């Protein structure tokens, strides 16, 4: 019996949580199925070459390459074309809000089974109001376990419509590199202490948190500091204080080299918590309060039960003070030892088993046209309400912009899209970040699929004179 194809789609979230979970599930599926990951997250560039999993990048609606309505249709058509090309039986979506295009793809192909991988620990954001309608469109809902689930009082916590699994993590003790090998892979000194800092940069408040955290590492003798991106603001100014030995290193998946680190400073996202703590890395969590993820609840649980330290994300002095505690070897030893008690992170395999069972069932899914129409009507109502609310803000913004003209730093080039099936991370990153429209194809795509994708692109972007192929 041939292996079934399963498509794992993810949104472009604040962090790498959605993509990391999809990668963990895909790795667990490889022996019994043909997993394909599609994502709006730029991090997908790392996956094909390092994990041997076929992938496609889909430009998100935040790229503003087309109108919202066109993007919904574009996403639907992209997914339907991929399903037809690969004969996929199951489409899994990991994200807070299943896009209308995802649900429309399922409704257009009733033989396709739709699974929602719905993380818990939601903040009480407006997305909660259509949870019921979204749930009815699904064949199955899976909730990846969270070590901090006891502190989940959000809108998904009382729902009975999902199957709960163990936590999902890309960290696997069995294939993680040893301390020595991990340090060699990162080009680090084998004997000096190393701290990993994963807080990100961008808005001014995020930048200030990065600086405050780095200041907490000053004075740690012989310390090597590893960041996954350069600590600079949008103008190229350094966010790092003088006196630190900082190295920017990219390694994917980072979970494989976690044994290289003596300490970590990290946002309290699902991904960071469920990789660093199972790897027994003494960690300070500095929450990112943007998005739907209730990182503060997760950070409080980790701190209250002694698995990690929590810094007050709103208090820069507290961030520096708490990070400084990591310099104490007794504190690090205590945190590391406590992490042994954490539950197993086998959720990736459990979700893979659920998806594989669905893919090998013969009973077709049922069309849910009426529920789909209700959901789309509600989506348009929600957009209308947001539009009305934004009119006043827009008027204020227009006055402000008249006084302070906006400087455009990047615009989409009005050129035909570039088509490529590249799996090279550097090349993919460049094309994804480019202002030129980029259409990514899975490796081994048929001529018919390429032709279909060109047709979809023309519908989305307008009648193009030519298609640039690479």
UniProtKB/TrEMBL annotation:
GO-annotated molecular function: glycosyltransferase activity
Name the record gives this protein: Unannotated protein
UniProt organism field: freshwater metagenome
The organism's taxonomic lineage, starting at the top: unclassified sequences, metagenomes, ecological metagenomes
């Amino acid at each position: 019996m041939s292996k079934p194809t399963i498509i794992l789609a993810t949104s472009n979230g604040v962090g790498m949580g959605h993509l990391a979970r999809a990668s963990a599930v895909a790795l667990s599926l490889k022996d019994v199925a043909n997993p394909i990951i599609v994502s709006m997250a730029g991090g997908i560039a790392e996956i094909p070459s390092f994990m041997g999993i076929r992938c496609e990048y889909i430009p998100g609606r935040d790229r503003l390459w087309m109108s919202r309505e066109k993007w919904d249709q574009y996403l639907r058509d992209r997914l339907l074309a991929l399903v037809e090309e690969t004969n996929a039986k199951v489409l899994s979506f990991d994200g807070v809000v299943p896009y209308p295009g995802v649900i429309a793809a399922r409704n257009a192909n009733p033989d396709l089974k739709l699974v929602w991988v719905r993380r818990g620990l939601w903040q009480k954001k407006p997305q909660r109001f259509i949870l019921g309608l979204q749930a009815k469109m699904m064949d199955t809902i899976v909730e990846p376990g969270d070590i901090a689930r006891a502190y989940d009082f959000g809108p998904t916590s009382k729902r009975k419509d999902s199957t709960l699994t163990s936590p999902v993590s890309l960290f696997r003790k069995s294939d993680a590199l040893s301390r020595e090998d991990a340090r060699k892979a990162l080009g680090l000194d084998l004997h000096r202490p190393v701290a990993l800092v994963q807080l990100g940069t961008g808005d001014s408040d995020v930048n200030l948190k990065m600086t405050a955290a780095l200041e907490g590492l000053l004075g740690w003798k012989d310390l090597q500091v590893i960041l996954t991106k350069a600590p600079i603001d949008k103008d190229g100014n350094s966010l790092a204080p003088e006196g630190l030995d900082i190295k920017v290193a990219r390694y994917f998946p980072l979970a494989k080299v976690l044994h290289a680190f003596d300490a970590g400073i990290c946002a309290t996202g699902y991904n960071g918590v469920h990789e660093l703590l199972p790897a027994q890395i003494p960690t300070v969590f500095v929450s990112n309060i943007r998005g739907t993820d209730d990182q503060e609840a997760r950070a409080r649980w980790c701190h209250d039960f002694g698995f990690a330290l929590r810094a007050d994300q709103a208090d820069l002095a507290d961030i520096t003070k708490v990070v400084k505690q990591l310099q104490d070897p007794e504190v690090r030893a205590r945190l590391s030892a406590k992490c042994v008690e954490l539950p197993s992170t086998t959720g990736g395999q459990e979700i893979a088993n659920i998806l594989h069972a669905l893919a090998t069932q013969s009973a077709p899914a049922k069309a849910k046209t009426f529920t789909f129409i209700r959901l789309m009507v509600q989506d348009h109502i929600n957009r209308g309400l947001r539009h009305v609310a934004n009119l006043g803000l827009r008027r204020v913004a227009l006055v402000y912009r008249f006084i302070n003209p906006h400087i455009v730093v990047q615009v989409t080039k009005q050129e035909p899209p570039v088509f490529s099936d590249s799996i090279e991370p550097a090349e993919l990153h460049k094309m994804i970040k480019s202002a030129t429209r980029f259409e990514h194809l899975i490796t081994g795509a048929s001529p018919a699929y390429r032709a279909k994708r060109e047709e979809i692109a023309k519908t989305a972007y307008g009648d193009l004179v030519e298609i640039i192929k690479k």
